[in-house]
Amino acid sequence: MATAAADKAARTEPGEAAPPAASAAHTAEQQAAFDAAVAADERIEPRDWMPDAYRASLVRQIAQHAHSEIIGMQPEANWITRAPSLRRKAILMAKVQDEAGHGLYLYSAAETLGTGRDELLDKLHSGRQKYSSIFNYPTLTWADVGAIGWLVDGAAITNQVPLCRCSYGPYARAMVRVCKEESFHQRQGYESLLALSRGTQAQHEMAQDAVNRWWWPSLMMFGPPDDESSHSEQSMTWKIKRHSNDELRQRFVDICVPQAESLGLTLPDPDLVWNEARGHYDFGPIDWTEFWDVLKGNGPCNEQRITQRRRAHEEGAWVRDAAAAYAAKHAPGSTTRPDTAAQHGEATA
Ligand code: BYC
Q1: Helical residues (DSSP H) of the chain, grouped into ranges
Q2: Where is composition skewed (Low complexity) in this entry (predicted)?
């Protein structure tokens, strides 16, 4: 928030800790400053006053996004040991590591809102917070890695580029870097699928089969239709979201159709046709029953994904303990710090 008046009314004092939650006793002046900042397309920063509901909705969306990034590592990591060449293996390992990095930026963004990483991971592991529906589908063949890059990362970019203009500063800034990396991911997926599509008959069929399976779940990534989207209207008023779910879904379809033609692959929708009057492609009905079912935990891989995530967290406990011990050892005033020990004439080896 840059406006002088808004600054005065809404910022906490320098040096003061960011409030864990906005007080119910906020003044109308603070609300007005917040509304003015959002209307003026200014960024809301962690130390600015913000409505409780805005904070909660951001935590909900950012947490879901962060969880998606780290759960999203699983389906692709499934193919690291079986990548068809050293080059493909190196690329895939880099991509999966990028997803871990995205998760970290996003958990950090949520932390600026006063919500700790432990709390968010606990909510993921106990099923109280969601992750993207898309990662509950299996990666059956090598071509699925290409299809995920092209379609899943493509859908992610379409959704996330507008989030670079999200009203909350830390989330918007995290998205800038994430989108650059997702853009590389999308291209590698496209290039990998192109190689398969132009390969042997069996490779072409494998690529087509992967696209057949990933197309509809990719369209579901954008969320329910606008008339069933509970958060869109408020999120758009707050400029967390800049476009509705259906708008972004349509944008994605329009981008994909010519790309599929260049790939020599067919999108599995007989109703896909250019509509001159709308200036967009029409497409067939999405199976929303399947979407809600996956959200309820009944997708093909929900159980496997969350079990693996819990196991990874438990097996990583020693790393967290070691990091915490190291941080404590190097904290100012620690009697076990090497430099402190040296001052006392103790061995520091
Ligand atoms: N999956 O009111 P709505 C990635 C939930 S992965 C699961 O429209 P909103 C990547 C929604 O949370 C992509 N749940 O919600 C990683 C809400 O439930 P709650 C991750 C979904 O928030 C690795 C309810 O349905 N991207 O990038 O206005 C490799 C009603 O929905 C889904 C993000 O998370 C879904 N698909 O809009 C490759 C982007 N859709 O919370 C790629 C940031 C909806 O009330 N998030 N729900 O229990 C967003 O932009 C928005 O949160 C959404 C949903 C567009 C997803």
Answers
A1: 4-10, 28-39, 52-71, 73-77, 86-111, 117-125, 143-147, 153-160, 169-197, 201-220, 232-237, 245-263, 288-293, 302-315, 317-329, 338-343
A2: 15-28
